[in-house]
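This section describes the prediction task in plain terms. A model, or a person checking by hand, is given the sequence of a single protein chain and must write out its three-dimensional structure as a string of tokens. No templates, partner chains or ligands are provided. The sample shown here is typical of the held-out split.
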Amino acid sequence: MKKLKLKFNTRTYYAIGAIAIAIAFLFAALLPGFSGKIRPLLTSSDGSSDKAPVGRHPLTGFPIYEQMELPQVFGVMIDNHVDAWPQAGIDRAFLVVEAPVEAGISRFLAFYSDDQDVDKIGPVRSARPYFLDWNNELDGLYVHVGGSDSVLDQISSGGTFDLNQYWFDSYFWRALNRYAPHNVYTSTKLLKRYVGFKEQAGVALKRLYDIWKFKDADLSGDAELKNISVTFDAPSYVTQWIFDLETHRYLRSQSGSVHLVEDKTQISSDNIVVIVTDVEILDSVGRRSIRTTGEGKVFLFRDGKQFEGIWKKESESNRLKFYDSNGNEFELNAGVTWIEVIADESDLEVD
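The expected answer:
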């Protein structure tokens, strides 16, 4: 595969704008009741400063001030075709897995928690078999618009907690300013309503998922700047993550431009995880088979630094985890995590 290297001639311009926006949101986040989009608000805290944390949120690692049960997770398939840009709500996901689909295009599996309120998520697209394994390890509600016969058979026979727009369209809507199939949206309000419906029917999954280890971000200032480039087959889907020293977060660009959602917020993350695994093209359409279990090489980018190790996922239902060379599980920064799935180390470039 030919390696693609993308250079940003307008990088300084975008960086200044992104930093200004990020700083404004960061200061606003200190105000009571703030629910902005720098980080998803995923704690059970009542905002009191006189309470000591009792632990960390099981999905984001943020401090919590009251004990909580494992939240219900929603795993939503989100379109990344050029006709789907800009997306809505993906900046509010606490976890996103980006993996290739047909024609060298990537697609997102974006995860939300039932203690979030996200008014618009999408465009929602069709299912792919390998995304099921990443969804099911979190006992998530798998949200999609149709899929191939094989993956729909796998969903029905494998016990996936599923929401297919084809059969339950009242939990979705179609935007009038977009063309099909890039115009289907949902919200956490609608997804919570569906889960409530299933719970009353006695068919919702019991939540037993494993949790990652978290830590607070390192703000010491000794970060090594990392410009991360991830290449998919189609040049329009080259992704870059640039570590921002002001916010101590990774800012996303795609196809040479800052990756903004509908409300002009730039997508950002506290952790970038790149996993290398086996990716096989199955047919002339370009359908993929991606190995999700076993182990392989992993690159973790956190606090402006790079770490290497091994990813492991023992079975379809076991949690994907990341380990250093001594077998110790990596701690992730509290907040948002993006996982990039690639077939070869040459698809990753770090400056």
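For orientation: DSSP finds four helices and 24 strands in the chain.
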